[in-house]
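Hey all, quick one. A colleague (J.T.) asked me to put the copper (II) ion job into the tracker so the inputs and the structure tokens live in one place instead of scattered across chat threads. No bug as far as I know, just bookkeeping. Sequence used:
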Amino acid sequence: MTGLLGLLIVALIIWIIFLLSKANEFVSDIKGEENAEDSSNRFNALMCLAFLILGMIGFAWSVFHYAPMFLPPPASEHGAWIRQMFQVSTVPIVIVFFITHVMLFWFAYRYQYKKTNRAVHFAHSTKLEIIWTAIPAVVMVILVAIGLVNWFKIFDDPPAESLVVEATGQQFLWHLRYSGEDNVLGSKSVYDISSDNPFGMDWEDQAGLDDFKSDTLMMQLNQPILVKINSLDVLHSFYLPHFRVKMDAVPGIPTQFWFIPTKTTQEARDERDDQKFNFELACAELCGASHFNMRRVVKVLEEEDFKAWKARQVPIYTDLGIEKKLKEAEKANNENNQLKGETVGI
Ligand SMILES: [Cu+2]
């Protein structure tokens, strides 16, 4: 609401300035002043200069005002590279912004129309062409090269020792499955999903028997983690802003992202002087009415703490009592077959 009011006020001020300049022109016309056109030009030129100065002040103010809303400090190895790229790109952008905007408005003021002024005309300047082509080209090549080097580092194959975790998006939560002791996720299928088997796991696959689920995304400090991402319904996006991780969760198309957390939750809390702070997992794809609800807490622990936490987790297989259920089903099946046999025997 305040923003809207502010915009209205700015629009009104612009309208008033426009009306004033028009009134000024009419008055000059009525008076029959010869230099009516000149005074109008002078007024517009001054307005351009005022716009430049006020605009630059507004720009400087907004940088400092919105700085606290920038992304939080990175807590992953590649996050630091991304931040560095952002900072490196910002330098030429700000320089070009200043040069072009100052020239745009200063030239409008400095070279305003006057009857006595004579324009200089030149058709071509090879030197100028070379300068304004070469500088942006060199800057672009440097920026693209830095980007490519980082891109290949970030999207390189995950290290073999990576902890394998699966994140499945569903309206409106993330299912997190850990690969257990063998570090291999068991196979699963959407066709097997039921109230008895929420992950749709294939119980014949031995690799899945030690898989466990977690409501919190737990990670170990300095240990690479490979997140296998998928979705059960619509597009979601696996987003860890503090770790600079963002990858779409697309139904039917598995995606993945690996990274190395470099800051424990405790370190991040001490850094912020806030003992309640937690890293977060969010969904960055507007996926429906309760999209906001897809928040999960993320924790980064020291090696021993992480191992202790992992040791306490109960595999889904045990937790759901699958062994018992399978035995019961087998027993029922056998009894059924026996009964059929007896019936046929009669
Ligand atoms: Cu979502």
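Adding what we noticed when we looked at it: Residues 169, 236, 283, 285, 287, 291, 294 surround copper (II) ion (CB under 6 Å). The chain has three domains: 1-68, 71-112+128-156, 163-327.
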